[in-house]
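Q: Got a minute? One more chain.
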Amino acid sequence: MSRFSVVSMRRIGVLFFFSILTLFADCGQAMARRQSFDEAAAGVVNAFRSRDQARLNRFVNSEQGVIVMYREGVYNVFKAVSRIDFAKPVPGYFPYPKLSSAAPLRYAPLPEYDCQREAWSKTGLFCDPKHRDVLLSTTAINLKRNGLKEISQETIDRFRALEAKSVRVVLVDVNGNDLVFYLTRIGERWYLTILDRVSSDCGA
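A: Always. Here it is, folded:
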């Protein structure tokens, strides 16, 4: 075997070795990111269940805050808050849910709410990282289009950017109570950024 062939084989071996190392490193990072997401989702749910306001607000980014979506008449609307206050829910007439049970997080298609049956399609805690929701930006566009609120294009673009990097999480307990929220990775942590209080509100 020529010296050139030996050198080439060594180079191929080195490249293969580093490729394997890179693959394992990527897998490790993906597993760590999934674990941190699972912990954040469980942390938010458990804080709501125990009404632990201090614990819940540790999942709120001080710069981003939380955007709460809710129904006002026939329109979906939203309000940005710096923190969640159980004594002052948004909207004021609609207390935050009292959840009867928790469930392990399942990566699966999300439950859907049926207004005719007034029920979700399934119970449990679900997320689907492949699903990208546009409820917030669509709400802003509709409010602007109907002249109900002055919303800049910059704000709409910011909402779209937030949606693009957020994961929707849906919890439906055995009594049909629900908690729908979004987690967004900011820096090295997952934060609660959007709270959906409209998906199971079919009132006019």
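A: Helices lie at 3-50, 53-57, 135-145, 153-164.
Q: Perfect, thanks.
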